[in-house]
């Protein structure tokens, strides 16, 4: 017999069972949202550190821009394996908490593997470590993005995910700042710089393993397919009655995510190279600090976008932001010096809300397909593995990173097709608007404002169900793709 405390923290959940978690109020959703938001900071930090190490490996190992992009290829190439494979299987069979813990453990293991690879200057070995870390972060994103979207009143989904993702932006600011001091400030002493990077990854490993323990013992509500089917029905935006293979809005959102993420990763990954090509007087440390400043603009853009979404429909904010990414990346191709760098700064500001808003809009009305659908949208992050090598090859062909910026411009334009559809095509627009008008989680649809997420009167406890018994919803997967 398992101890009672282990049974209390069981990671197994039934997807055909309503838990009332889809009706969480703002107050009830605060704790789980805060806990999951920590994860957004973690992969923002990891991603920002990767952009800094990209340039460092070019210097230390004397490799080309195209080869150094192997870091991004290993990192983002792991995402489909996680989001469509092991992480999505765990999410669908065990739930969100189990997926969070799995992702954190992989992240920690990858960080430990990175240690000897950095010590022996093995670029291939470090790419393998980054691939393990990418699997961990891909697992976290597979669960965290949809969880933030559905944890709380659906009316505020885009606001919640953009607010949480803003802490991802803060992580991308902190990492280049640290990198500029612990890596590039040791000019001529590469061994000292690499030793400092080792300690960073050891600290990451210790922290994420500790966080995995915190998640295990935390009473966060589990949101099932039955909960999501209920939410879609209540908002009258239920498109899940169609077979999964006919969820065209989802697949278009995944395509947009592929193109957008590829462009974003390419720009950030070669930002330091761009600064050096635009003005050779800048040192690597200064260029890394400029990257931190640009990522600060990225984080600020998310807070500003989140604020605007309180007054303007999120789909309109998305249309404007992504459109301005195209407007400002285009002149960076030909404008020299600080003016070109300024164009990239503004581009990063407007990139800010695009990724999380595509996730939120793409999941509208998926109902019982929400977990499977999230795997496709997060898996599309593999665009970050495809675009940077193309950008690197284009830059190497002219020995000019400014010319390479034509690559993210093309991918931004392709992603913009989704922004147009979600604003002007009724089949896309109506489900998005239905969710922003719903009162689920705001008015009393069954969840008590006084309840807590777990415990007496809570959304997971039997007393929180109102009738003292667990209610069930018929959620059958037709097995069709």
UniProtKB/TrEMBL annotation:
The ranges of region (Disordered) come to 446-481
Q: Is Transferase there in the keyword field? A: no
Where does the secretion signal sit in this chain?
none
Against Pfam families, the record matches this protein to: MFS_1
**What is the first-listed, main subcellular location in coarse terms?**
membrane
Q: Does the keyword Membrane apply?
A: yes
Q: Where in the cell is it found?
A: Cell inner membrane
Query: Which key words tag this protein in UniProt?
Result: Cell membrane, Membrane, Transmembrane, Transmembrane helix
InterPro entries in the record: MFS, MFS_trans_sf, MFS_TsgA-like
Q: Where is the composition biased (Gly residues)?
A: 454-463
Per the record, its GO cellular-component terms are: plasma membrane
What protein name does the entry list? Glucose/galactose transporter
Q: Mark out the compositionally biased spans (Basic and acidic residues).
A: 464-481
User: Where are the bilayer-spanning segments?
Assistant: 30-50, 70-91, 98-116, 165-187, 199-218, 250-275, 287-309, 316-335, 341-361, 373-391, 403-425
* Organism name: Cladosporium halotolerans
Q: Which terms in the Gene Ontology molecular function aspect does this entry carry?
A: transmembrane transporter activity
- The organism's place on the tree of life at top rank: Eukaryota
Membrane topology, as annotated, equals: Multi-pass membrane protein
């Amino acid at each position: 017999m398992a101890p009672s405390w282990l049974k209390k923290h069981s990671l197994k959940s039934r997807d055909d069972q309503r838990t009332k978690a889809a009706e969480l109020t703002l107050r009830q959703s605060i704790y789980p949202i805060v806990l999951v938001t920590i994860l957004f900071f973690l992969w923002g930090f990891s991603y920002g550190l990767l952009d800094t190490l990209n340039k460092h490996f070019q210097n230390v190992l004397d490799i080309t821009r195209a080869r150094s992009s192997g870091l991004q290829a290993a990192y983002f190439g792991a995402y489909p394996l996680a989001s469509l494979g092991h992480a999505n299987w765990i999410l669908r069979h065990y739930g969100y908490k189990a997926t969070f813990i799995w992702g954190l453990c992989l992240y920690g293991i990858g960080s430990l593997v990175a240690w000897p690879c950095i010590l022996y200057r093995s670029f291939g070995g470090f790419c393998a470590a980054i691939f393990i870390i990418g699997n961990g972060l891909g697992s976290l994103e597979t669960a965290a993005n949809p969880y933030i979207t559905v944890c709380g009143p659906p009316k505020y989904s885009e606001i919640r995910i953009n607010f949480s993702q803003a802490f991802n932006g803060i992580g991308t600011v902190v990492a280049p700042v640290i990198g500029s001091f612990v890596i590039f400030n040791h000019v001529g002493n590469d061994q000292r710089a690499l030793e400092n990077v080792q300690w960073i990854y050891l600290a990451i490993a210790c922290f994420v393993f500790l966080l995995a323990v915190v998640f295990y013992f935390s009473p966060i509500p589990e949101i099932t397919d039955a909960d999501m089917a209920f939410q879609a029905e209540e908002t009258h935006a239920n498109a899940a009655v169609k077979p999964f293979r006919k969820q065209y809005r989802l697949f278009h959102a995944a395509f947009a995510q592929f193109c957008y993420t590829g462009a974003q990763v390419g720009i950030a990954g070669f930002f330091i190279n761009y600064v050096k090509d635009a003005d050779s007087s800048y040192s690597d440390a200064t260029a890394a600090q400029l990257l931190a400043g640009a990522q600060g603009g990225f984080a600020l853009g998310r807070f500003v976008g989140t604020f605007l979404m309180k007054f303007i429909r999120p789909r309109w904010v998305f249309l404007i932001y992504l459109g301005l990414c195209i407007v400002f990346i285009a002149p960076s191709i030909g404008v020299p010096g600080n003016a070109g760098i300024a164009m990239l700064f503004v581009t990063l500001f407007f990139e800010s809300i695009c990724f999380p808003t595509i996730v939120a809009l793409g999941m509208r009305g998926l109902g019982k397909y929400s977990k499977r659908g999230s795997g496709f949208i997060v898996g599309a992050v593999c665009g970050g593995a495809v675009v940077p090598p193309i950008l690197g090859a284009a830059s190497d062909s002219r020995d000019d990173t400014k010319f390479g910026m034509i690559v993210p411009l093309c991918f931004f334009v392709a992603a913009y097709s989704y922004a147009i559809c979600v604003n002007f095509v009724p089949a896309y627009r109506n489900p998005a608007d239905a969710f922003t008008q719903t009162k689920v989680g705001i008015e009393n649809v069954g969840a008590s404002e006084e309840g807590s997420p777990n415990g007496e009167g809570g959304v997971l406890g039997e007393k929180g169900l109102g009738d003292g018994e667990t209610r069930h919803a018929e959620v059958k997967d037709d097995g069709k793709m």
